[in-house]
Structure formats: C-alpha cells, structure tokens
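hi! just following up on the protien thing from before. the input was this:
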Amino acid sequence: MTNSSLPPDGQPIGHYISSAPFDAQSIEQLTPAQERLYLASQWKLMWWKFKRHRVAVASGIFLALMYLAVFISEFLAPYNLHSRNIDSLFMPPQKIHFFDKGEFKGPFVYGTTYKLNMENLKREYSENREQVYPLRFFCRGDRYDYWLGGSSDLHLVCAAKNSTLFLLGTDRLGRDVLSRIIMGSRISLTIGLLGIVISFTLGIVIGGLAGYYGGLLDLIVQRIIEILQSLPSIPLWLALAAILPVTWSPLLVYFGITIILGLLDWTGLARAVRSKLLSLREEDYVVSAQLMGAKTSRIIGRHLVPGFMSHLIASATISIPTMVLGETALSFLGLGLRPPITSWGVLLAEAQNISVVALYPWLMFPVVPVILTILAFNFFGDGLRDAADPYK
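and the predicted 3d structure came back as:
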C-alpha cells in the first residue's frame, strides 16, 4: 500500500478480509504425493531418504548377504575348514572355464601337474588341457559339523571326482584358501557385533547418566573419557591382548578380545549421548515425567534415548568396522585369536613373511573381504547418518 492510498489523518483504515462464508472446497487441495509426505512417520521419511543413497543401499545389501553367509558357511565352502591336500601345497588359484576346444561344456576346471623349481624351491603348477573336470553343484563332499548342531556333507559347489577346486589357491598345508576365508568371516564379522553390544551398553549408560545429572558426575566422566582417548589405540590393544593367558581355550580368547574391543570403544558414543541429553533434559516432556515421579532409568531409556535412536544406529555402523580392524590387527600380530580358530586376521598372519608373499601372493586374498567390509560399513553408515535427519 503506497502513501497516496492511505486515508486522511483521523480516518479509520479499511480492512480487506472477506466477509463471505468460509468454503472448505475453495481451499487448495493437497496432491496425493504431498498428503503421503505430510502424513509419513519419522521412520518412513528416513527410509525414503536412505533409499535415495544408492551406494548405501548397495552396501547394506552386501552386508546383509555377508551376515547371512555366516549361518551357512559350511555349506558355501567347497571344502572342510581343516581339509588338507598334500599333493596341492601352495597351489595357485585355478581358473574356471566354460569352453574346451571351441565346445561349450559348462563350468569346469582343467587338471593340474606340477614340478619343483630347484632354484627357488617353488612348486610350479600347470594346466593339463587333456583333463576336463566339470564342477558339481549341491553336491556331497567333505563332512563337517554344523555350528548349530548336527553334521552334513552337502556343499554348494564341489570338485569332480579325483580332481581339485581351489579358486583362491591353497596354503602351506594344502588347505583351500577360499573355504578358510568363508569360514573365517563368522569370527571376524560377529566379533564386531558382540563388541558393539558392550560398547553401546557402556556408552549409553555412562554418557546418559553424565548428561542427565551433570555436575560432578559429568566432570569425572569427561576426564576419564579424555584420558582414554589420549592413549594410542593400537598399543593399548596390544598391551591388553598380551595379558590374556596362553593357556586359555580359543573360545575364551575370542570372548576376551571381544571384551577388550568393547571396553575401549565406548568413549566416543558416551560423549555423543551426553551432549544429546544435556540439550534434551530441559524439555517440557522431561520435566513432566519428573513431576509424575518417573525413575531416572525410565526417563533416559523411554523418553530421551529414543529421541536420537537414529543417530545411535548410524554410530553403530561406523564403530563395527573399527572392531573388525582391531581383531584383524591383533590376530595378524599374533596377539589376538590363534589357531585352531580361523579369522581373517589369523589367515593374514600366514602372509607375514615377505618371501612367502613374493612367491605365493594369493595368500594375501583374505585382505580383500576386510577392505570390502570396511568400505561397505562406512558407506552404509554415511547413508544412515544422512537419513537420520530426513528434513535436511
């Protein structure tokens, strides 16, 4: 409204509000897509935003398949974990072929012959093109004891009779590297999940109490966290792992390493929980719960923690790779898990000798699932972290 349109001094200003009856049909209607968006819950909005992160979705599918394989490792592995073939020591990976002399014969491998190189004492293998061995699927092979009970000899893929199938080669004892990698995933992947349970329990409880009460408790917790975070992680892992008695059974060592990794990884989560609770404890609904006589544990667990559960889930996916790397590093250095337990770190310990790596580079294959798993967890965590705030 310009100055020239204003009424003279002392005169009332006219209003422009319509006095006609309200007509609900005249209001602009929401489109079905808009209505679906406005009525969606917080979790549904997070899911829609997460699906737009293609790399995170692909990483989630990859991790889901990896953890599904943990339950059927014996079935997926071509050989038993401890099966030895003394005629195939340090055999390089065998290639799968589909055509022989221009004729399609399905997936098969050629027979192999070897000779000992007297200059470097290396076994040199070569394909025998006259021997064609088709692969067998859903076949009977090495018998194994299933980890949930019972035994079987059913495998996804097996070599033909009187032949071998070493897709990733063999080690110094003639054991199939691929089978050992598949079986080792059970330890390397589950140790991160068990460790994160310990880490999250400590982080949520300690960080929650510090953030909710504040004061002297908060001060003490913060100083403890600063001391722990100032210590270098790897030397601390080594020191704690070294005190595990050598007389312990492999199962006790497994749980000991899990507890060590969990006890050293809670500090970052505790600080995140503390900062969230410091900002949320003054909210009206928290004060209402206090006035109604709710216990501290109920207020934190029922009202405060669910408010940033999405952030906790994203933090978990980022913390698990740290524990996988921790177990791999400790086992690689000989201070973590030890045979007969098989993990990716234990397998990599056999590749410590540079001469072995130079002559038999396929012994480094266990590092591939470690790298892929770490990358998948990081991409998956990035997607969850972005989806945790769907309104951005």
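The chain has two domains: 94-165, 179-387.
The CA atoms of residues 196 and 316 lie 7 Å apart.
cheers
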